[in-house]
Amino acid sequence: MIIALLIIHGLLAVALLGAITHQAIGVWLPARPGAQSFVARLRSVSTPSYVTAVIVLFIATAILGGIIYPAYRLNVRIVLEQYELHKANGSFELKEHLVAVGMGMLPAYWYLWRQPLAEQYASSRKILTTILAFIVWWGFLVGHVLNNIRGFEV
Amino acid sequence: MSALRSTPTFAIVFAVAFAVVYLLAVENNWALFTYHPALEEFGLWVEKPKDGPAMYWYGWLATAAIGAFGIAALASWLPGAVTERIGPLWSWLIPSLVMINFAYLLRSFFLR
Predict the structure, then answer these.
(1) Mean pLDDT, chain A, whole residue set
(2) Chain A: nearest CA to B81, how far in angstroms?
């Protein structure tokens, strides 16, 4: 059961990573009109269309992470401590705090992206989206590395 | 109309308050409840570990969520002349500083 939840947690994280990364790229590097390359298409996404997906996926991924967290606490963290893998252990500690702070930012994120987009919020919209993207990337990479260290022996 | 006007204040103050209350909750261990994963038991407020580790993260989240909701709700009632000064900059600046603070607090993991 925990393994199934861990896989679903990972899949949701991949979807969230894709959504927030597309949005962050689109908001910082909007495509020039007429460009048709792969990169141009990546940059030309409709950035507001990702907001609901990002919020729903962020909350769903965090809830699933919270459900499997006790298994990590009992079966993974203890091993990390025994093998003195302090950086891996600390990376996860930081992940839990970053995700918590990120969840608190979601109402502001939703508000800043509310249609019609307010021009005076453009800078804050960019920065807040980038911070959320950083949190998601940090969480994803740390989770991936820890899973590689411990595997599915949960 | 009033609810619409107070939405930005609530959203921005919630982001600030959640980050600050969460930081205070972690530093002072103000967990609303404790979870004992080995026993699969919840306990109200902060409890010492019993037969395995105690988890406070859920309790810190609950403390931060309730605290931030209350603070943001109160801020929404402030007069417009005051709330106009609460710009969107605060919604990412304070949480960013809190995240940097967490990185600093956890530095011993990375410097060993």
Answers:
(1) 93
(2) 18
